[in-house]
Amino acid sequence: LLDNKMILNAIVGQSFDGCRIELPDAGIVHTTLQVRNAIELTMLNNKTSRRVGCMFTDMPRSDMAALQRYITRLERERNARLAGLA
After folding, report:
1. Which of the ends of the chain has fewer CB neighbours closer than 10 A, N or C?
2. Overall domain count for the chain
3. pLDDT value, residue 68
4. Dihedrals φ, ψ of 73, to 5°?
5. What is the CATH classification number for the domain harbouring 59?
6. What is d(CA 59, CA 51) in angstroms, rounded to the nearest whole number?
7. Which DSSP string corresponds to 18-86?
8. pLDDT, position 29
9. 23 Cβ partners below 8 Å, 6+ apart?
10. 24-40: per-residue pLDDT in tens?
11. CA distances, 10 to each of 1, 42, 51 (Å)
12. Distance of CA 29 to the CA centre of its chain
């Protein structure tokens, strides 16, 4: 999760309930996000941003399966590009 505007007061261990994540061409998944780490970064343009690492929790099985299919598709497309097939 990228917090460009630094508006999330993300504390490690904090949970965000009722999150909806839209997966392009795959629909919306529902989950709770638990903050695992938060790192402030200085970008090449000298602007500060925060990267927040989260763990998916309390995700319905059907949404977990949809997320896994989405990740598998992205990996397959990336591998095809690297192999020069796409």
Report:
1. C
2. 1
3. 96
4. -65, -45
5. 2.40.10.220
6. 22
7. EEEEEETTTEEEEEEEEEEEEEEEE-TTS-EEEEEEEEEES--HHHHHHHHHHHHHHHHHHHHHHTT--
8. 96
9. 29, 66, 67, 70
10. 988 999 999 999 999 99
11. 11, 18, 10
12. 11
Domain that holds residue 78: 2-82
> pLDDT digits over 42-77, tens only?
989 998 889 999 999 999 999 999 999 999 999 999
> What is the pTM for the complete model shown?
0.76
pLDDT at 2: 87
Exposure letters 16-51 (e unless 16+ CB within 10 A, then b): eeebebebeeeeebebebbbeebeeeeeeeeeeebe
